[in-house]
């Protein structure tokens, strides 16, 4: 997760009933935008150093991203090494029909080889409402999307393990 000054940060609590927090990145600790970064929280105005976890979403400010790229280029002109940047995108489509929810997650990594010469990976997740359960479409969506994303993550981690094992000639275990 790479940030630029001005990007929006949303942290969702793992505790039921606890509100999500929103803030803006106000300072980077690394030129390439890698964590940690300093966030000013909208609810309190306080600033804190953030090491984003799986409960954090980063929404990029396109204007800030362009300014950061220009700053990296300028620093390269001063003799510093430019930092490579690639954007991977995930799209999730959700389909509902008769108590069944189907989610398809698509990861697109333009120009990257995700294995077998592919630059995209797909995964699916499903949820089914039992007849006696209440009709809660959002819960079905969350289950199906969560399952699709978990499968996508497992595939990526498995591919990373395989790549490490091939490169080193030894068994590799990646911790999630």
Structural write-up:
This is DUF1918 domain-containing protein. It holds the Pfam family Rv2632c-like. It comes from Luteimicrobium xylanilyticum. With about 180 residues, the protein is of the alpha+beta class. It has 2 domains: about 10-75, no CATH class; about 90-170, Double Stranded RNA Binding Domain, CATH 3.30.160.240. Helix content is about 25%, strand content about 30%. The chain is built from 2 helices and 8 strands. It has helices at about 60-75, 135-170; strands at about 10, 20-30, 35-40, 45-50, 55-60, 90-95, 100-110, 120-130. The chain has a 5-stranded antiparallel sheet with strand order 4-3-2-1-5, with no helix packed on it. It is globular. The two termini are about 15 Å apart.
Percent helix: 25-40%
**CATH homologous superfamily of the largest domain - what is it?**
Rv1738
What is the annotated CATH architecture of the largest domain? 2-Layer Sandwich
Q: Into which percentage range does the β-strand content fall?
A: 25-35%
Brief digest:
This protein has 176 residues and is of the alpha+beta class.
Primary descriptors:
globular, five-stranded antiparallel beta sheet, 176 residues, alpha+beta, 2 domains, single chain, three-stranded antiparallel beta sheet, Double Stranded RNA Binding Domain
Secondary-structure blueprint of this entry?
Elements: E1 8-11, E2 21-28, E3 37-41, E4 47-50, E5 56-59, H1 62-77, E6 89-97, E7 100-108, E8 120-128, H2 137-168
Antiparallel strand pairs: 1-2, 1-5, 2-3, 3-4, 6-7, 7-8
């Amino acid at each position: 997760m790479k940030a630029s000054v001005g990007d929006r940060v949303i942290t969702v609590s793992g505790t039921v009933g606890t509100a999500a927090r929103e803030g803006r990145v106000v300072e980077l600790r690394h030129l390439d935008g890698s964590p940690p970064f300093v966030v000013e929280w909208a609810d309190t105005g306080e600033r804190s150093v953030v090491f984003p976890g799986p409960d954090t979403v980063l929404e990029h400010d396109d204007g800030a991203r362009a300014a950061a790229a220009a700053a990296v280029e300028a620093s390269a002109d001063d003799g510093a090494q430019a930092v490579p940047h690639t954007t991977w995108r995930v799209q999730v489509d959700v389909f509902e029909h008769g108590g069944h929810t189907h989610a398809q997650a698509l990861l697109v990594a333009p120009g990257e080889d995700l294995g077998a010469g592919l630059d995209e990976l797909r995964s699916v997740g499903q949820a089914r409402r039992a007849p006696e359960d209440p009709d809660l479409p959002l819960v079905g969506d969350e289950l199906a999307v969560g399952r699709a994303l978990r499968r996508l993550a497992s595939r990526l981690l498995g591919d990373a393990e395989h790549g490490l094992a091939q490169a080193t000639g030894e068994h590799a275990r990646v911790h999630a």
